[in-house]
Predict the 3D structure of the following.
Amino acid sequence: MDGELITAITAVFVSVVGMVYAGSQARTAKAAARSAETQVELMRRQIEGEEKARFEGSGPTFAVSSAVVDKSNANVPRAVLSLRQESGQRLASLAISASGTGVEGMRGARDSDSPWEYQREDQVDVGESTQGATHEVYVDLSYDTRATGTIRSAPGFSPVVKRI
C-alpha cells in the first residue's frame, strides 16, 4: 500500500506541475497572439497608407481650358468654365464647385419653378471623366460689380474626386 500511496502522490505532483506548465504555455501563447494582432494591425495601416499615397500620387489633374463671363442671360450673369482632365485615372463621378468673391452658386438642372429657371447648387456632378475629357460648367455671379470687380478670369474651382 505504501508503494501505491507514493505512486498516487507522485502522480498528483506530476499533474500539478503539468497544470502549472500548461498555464504558463497558455499565457505565452496569449502574449504571442496579442503580438501577432498588433503586427497585423500595423501592416494593415501601412497598406492603407501606401494605397492612399498611390491614389493621391496618381490622382487626376485638371486645367481651365476656357473661362469667360457670359452676360447674355439677363436673369443672372454667369461664368462659363471649360475644365479639362489633363491626367489621372478614369473617374466614375466628378463633382465641381466654385468659390470666391461674387460667386453665387453653380447652375444645376433646369427648374421652371425657380426664379432663376434652374436649380442653384453648391456643386454639380458632371458624371464620368477620363483623361482628355472636357466639362463645361456654369457659375452664377453676383450682379454687384463691387463684389465681382472687373472679372479678368473666372473664379476658382474645386473638383471632388470619387474613387471607382
About this structure: The mean pLDDT is 77. Residues 1-57 form one domain. The first helix runs from residue 2 to 57. The longest strand covers residues 61-70.
